[in-house]
Write a structure and sequence with these properties.
This protein has 353 residues and is of the alpha/beta class. Helix content is 41%, strand content 18%. A six-stranded mixed sheet has the order 5-4-3-6-7-10, with helices on both faces. The protein has a three-stranded antiparallel sheet with strand order 1-2-11. A two-stranded antiparallel sheet has the order 8-9.
């Protein structure tokens, strides 16, 4: 709990002062009360329940006053709310190293199954897109709510040489913001380290040329509430733009980039289809990308680890914790207590106060 105006909490000292004043007034009233000739009449008029319930409305009023003072201090609390991030881009590494079988049955098979489970577990109103990157990046599936199309898109992923992490991240941003001309950042790389020129399934044949690049007014990192990117890779950049430059582009737009390092961060190599593949992901870069964009980094060395990572990410999109001001909520509770105190006073004593 934090407060924007903590000085206002000093006003809470007025609450015990009011309680003391109330007790003092009661004692004075008792001293000046009329004396009845018959004590039996007094006992009949003032049962135990009646004696205690006369204190209920004032007590409710004092509690309401304390809550209102508390609200004046503008408290902030971490609360769990439904996520507002309704477009998610899965940026998936499809470099040749994903064919390695150190993760059974293979890295790519485990990644596909985890991604498909993640897709199926999302709320129906969440749009998901799929971007694949290796020697170049391509949009395998533009954002859609159709889970069958997404599953088919994930199954279509084809492995290639090289790893252009920066290209995958930039194209994911371009998919989130199709009218900002972000794809132009990759034009100098062509189809080698840039964008794959094959038209992805689901793209309109009459799609207009990419929009011209727009100037972006930077916003606080992580402040974009309508979308996010999940980037999975088992390697390190070998071609294309610098992933950290791409991460800064995401940070300037407030987009969170959750990064997943899959496989090993310890090093080693293997031979796949005649290629000698260096088997190590760049953990420092992945952590830096997540940090720059106010997101999180995850590491998965097995299929079960990767499944747990996607389960954790899924929880972040269904419900997420957020620090928010709760003054309005506290004020509403105080207003209800004031109305309740007034209602009970009228109902029991035919007066307010």
């Amino acid at each position: 709990m934090s407060y924007l105006w903590p000085q206002a909490l000093w006003l809470l000292l007025a609450v015990p002062a009011l309680v003391a004043l109330y007790v003092l007034l009661l004692r004075r009233r008792n001293k000046s009360a009329l004396r009845y000739a018959s004590l039996d009449l007094v006992r009949a008029a003032m049962t135990s329940g009646q004696r205690y319930r006369r204190h209920v409305p004032p007590a409710l009023f004092v509690v309401a006053l304390a809550l209102l003072i508390f609200a004046i201090s503008r408290p902030h609390a971490v609360v769990t709310l439904p996520s507002e991030q309704r477009t998610i881009i899965l940026a998936m590494d499809v470099s040749l190293s994903m064919r390695a079988t150190d993760v059974q049955p293979s890295r790519i098979a485990a990644a596909r199954e985890a991604a498909k489970t993640f897709v199926q577990d999302q709320p129906p109103d969440v749009r998901i897109g799929v971007v694949a990157f290796a020697g170049s990046a391509s949009v395998t599936q533009r954002p859609t709510r159709d889970r069958e199309e997404l599953t088919a898109a994930i199954d279509r992923l084809q492995l290639q040489t090289h790893t252009a992490i920066g290209s995958g991240l930039i194209l994911s941003l371009a998919t989130l913001f199709p009218n900002e001309g972000i794809e132009s950042e990759l034009e100098s790389y062509g189809s080698y380290g840039g964008i794959a020129r094959d038209k992805p399934r689901g793209a309109a044949l009459d799609k207009p040329r990419p929009a011209e690049k727009k100037e972006v007014k930077p916003v606080p990192p992580g402040s974009y509430r309508s979308g996010a990117i999940i980037l999975l890779t088992d390697g390190r950049r070998t071609i294309g733009p610098d992933p950290l430059d791409a991460a800064r582009m995401a940070a300037d737009r407030g987009v969170k980039v959750y990064t997943v390092g899959f496989g090993t961060s310890q090093g080693g190599s293997t031979n796949i289809d005649g290629y000698s593949i260096y088997m190590r992901f760049d953990e420092e870069t992945l952590k830096a990308i997540a940090q720059l964009t106010s997101a999180e980094y995850f590491q998965a060395s097995s299929a079960s680890d990767l499944k747990r990572v996607y389960e954790a990410l899924n929880a972040r999109y269904v419900l997420e914790k957020e620090e928010t001001e709760i003054s309005a909520l506290i004020s509403a509770v105080a207003a209800v207590l004031v109305l309740l105190a007034a209602g009970l006073s009228v109902m029991w004593f035919s007066r307010i106060g």
